[in-house]
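Fig. S4 source data, part A: sequence.
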Amino acid sequence: MPVAGPRLKTFYENTVRAKLAAQFGFTNPHQIPTLTKIVINCGVGEAVKQPKLLDVVVEELALISGQKPVRRKAKKSVANFGLREGQEIGASVTMRGARMWEFLDRFVTVACPRIRDFRGLGTKSFDGRGNYTLGIKEQMIFPEINYDMVEQIHGMDITFVTTADKDAHAFALLHQLGMPFRGDDKPVTPKVAQPSAAA
């Protein structure tokens, strides 16, 4: 029996693409935005004094993402922080393909509702080029993490990289895929040049 594709990817191909094309009037199917990768980045400043902390973070990122993270090294030496060039101070993992779609599915349906006092994700974290980054304060929102095994609470940054060239297109894509954005903030809309008063 062939293995079924990720649920969210099937939903995107069957439903979301048609909705986005209708919403923005795309005539070329290649104009329709899609996800290209999801990057999880975790900086561990304490790893300078306690290198074993980074090992724990790498293990947890591997559990969350399903693949081996890359250890990140300091690019510069900073005397005030006791930091030397080349020291390992963080870890990151980049997901593409089926792993990316499955992670987004788990993040939207399981992890987000477990965030303490959750009222929706902010809509102001787009970078102007169709990418969205959010910060997570606790790694415990992911069901793969065992509470009893957690030694220290740490956060992480998650970046959703899309093919959209406008924030409005990226927002619509992520919203259609189920990202629970906050209703209080104004949704991202393309800026329209206002006519001058003299005209």
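Fig. S4 source data, part B ends here. The chain is about 30% helix and 15% strand.
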